[in-house]
Amino acid sequence: MTGIRTVPAPWGRPFMAALVVACAQMIAPHADAQTPPPGFDSIPRPPGSIGPSQNLMPPGSSSGVLAPQTPASPLQLAPPSAQPVALPPAPPAPPPAATVTPSVPMVPAGQVALMVNARFGKEPPAITGGLHWRVYADRPDASGIFRLLREERAAAPIFVLPPGGYVVHVGFGLATAAKKVQLRSETVRETFELVAGGARFEGRVGDSRIPAGQITFDIFRGSQFEGEDKRPLASGVASTDVLLLPEGTYHVVSNYGDSNATVRSDIRVQAGKLTDVVVNHRAAVITLKLVNERGGEALANTQWSVLTPGGDVVKEATGAFPKVILAEGEYSVVARNEGKVYNGKFKVEPGFDREIEVLSR
Predict the structure, then answer these.
(1) How much is the pTM?
(2) Which of 118, 178, 185, 262 is the most exposed, having the fewest neighbouring CB atoms within 10 Å of its CB?
(3) Domains of the chain in sequence order
């Protein structure tokens, strides 16, 4: 069973700002992340939703061609367009402070500025983080490849390029957009619309949350009822991740452990909204032990096979007391130790984690 909660994010509200901030952060491999991204702690969540999340997006970059917000930009800035004005003295009041307008980047002769930004749709505010920009030549080179000319991760970079045609591509998680632009003599401004939303996943057994290290999610485009599985858009997604996706229908495969505790469910991602997906598993953690007597010490170097009633192998393991996560149902088990074979049967009940002892006689 799957519970899906969609947290609305009206445009201009603090929630969208929090989502954008979260998407701009990067906490390297999923399992190593400890610090939640800023902003999510202030988001109202329905009861049972998961806690602070990290995202899959790369961090903002300071290596852009020309980004006014980046102090290390190698280009010179034009002087202020307005100079301090000294008014006639009027004691005892001092002269008013100087007034200047914001600095404007200087574009070298023979070059043209291309200013780009992105937003979630036609009306919403701009996306302020988590964007990956690429500028390509609009014609292939002699080898037939469209050459990458510029790359930037700032929210609203300014590319300074010679006049001509270009293709600009922007990525936001798994949502992308591209435009062909023509630069002539005047500054060109382009706004890209990325109709995307976020999805966050959680697994449960009854009322208990499954630890992040025991469950992963694979995401496929379209409904599970539309045909055979295709290549996943994302695999091994942890419950600590926020995944950015184009608006649409997806199906999720939730893998609890690495045997047969798998649940499939369809979800709908909406633009500008964070969808909480809660997948309910009917499974349990089973510890296998080969003993000489009930309650005795487990025998080392034991090889295990867990089978369905029909004889299909579900899981194989080696050790004195391996742990296996199994879906609800009845199973038989085969233990091999020092050339001898021992058999047993057991039943898995949802949420009832326990030890199964097989007697070596």
Answers:
(1) 0.67
(2) 185
(3) 284-359 (2.60.40.10)
